[in-house]
Amino acid sequence: MLELSHITKKYGSKPALEDMSLTLPRGQIVGLFGENGAGKTTLMKCALDLLRHGGTVTLDGAPIDRSSIEKLSFATSEHSFFPALTANAHREFYAAHFPRFNGRRFAALMDFFSLPASKPLRSFSTGMKNQFEVILALSQGADYILMDEPFAGNDVFNREDFYKVLLGILGENETVLLSTHLLEEVKGFVGRAVLLHRGRIVGDCLMEDLEDRGMDLMDYVKKSYGYEADRVSQTLRELADGQEERNEP
Q1: Which fold has domain 2-247?
Q2: pLDDT tens, 108-136?
Q3: Average pLDDT over residues 46-64
Q4: Which residues contact 10 (CB under 8 A, 6 or more apart)?
Q5: Integer Cα distance of 140 and 46 in angstroms
Q6: Measured distance CA(143)–CA(187) in Å, rounded
Q7: Which of 92, 88, 95 is nearest to 119 (CA)?
Q8: Residue ranges per domain, the chain?
Q9: Residues 6+ apart with CB under 8 A from 63
Q10: How big is the CA angle at 29 (ends 105 and 210), to the nearest 5 degrees?
């Protein structure tokens, strides 16, 4: 179990996470949702102990340290690979450093995305680099796979097919924490939704519970955020009124 307890993080005087607690059992696919600046990336980096923070993070009851590395993987659009190395060289590097590296999964995902194995990563497009980042995270052999906007630069068909592949390859003890703005695309893929707003968790619900309540993910998000359904029409009315005032003689 990955457990974050009372996590706080500030950038200067600006709070990014405020007394945030989250528990991730094994075997879940969790969607992490929130507007830009809600704290999603910061949360993931704190979970991986990449940022100094208040509060505690434990993995199976023990603090995160160097011995935890093989159990946690991270796919980020900031990229964590070696741009001068080929995909094959990365495979060899990961196989040498991670005892549970899944070579068969690596090869299958390389074929799925049609990525060249013998070209340096710096020659890849942005979308291809993000695809390869996901491949490394999924092939490392980690128990907890954190993905921060992993599908940037990928077309809708690639994303839709990838969700199906991911559901088919994940083991029962593998947990995915997926940060994305693509709510409509992933609502049938995730089993749990965690909503962040201004550094705090404002919603946490299993998708099956939403179904029992007759709600879909978008309804739940709008309700949790207090979304004002008429705010668009109200703004358009105000603009129209202002235009009429300017047109009056």
Answers
A1: Rossmann fold (3.40.50)
A2: 999 999 999 999 999 999 888 988 999 99
A3: 93
A4: 16
A5: 20
A6: 22
A7: 88
A8: 2-247
A9: 56, 57
A10: 150
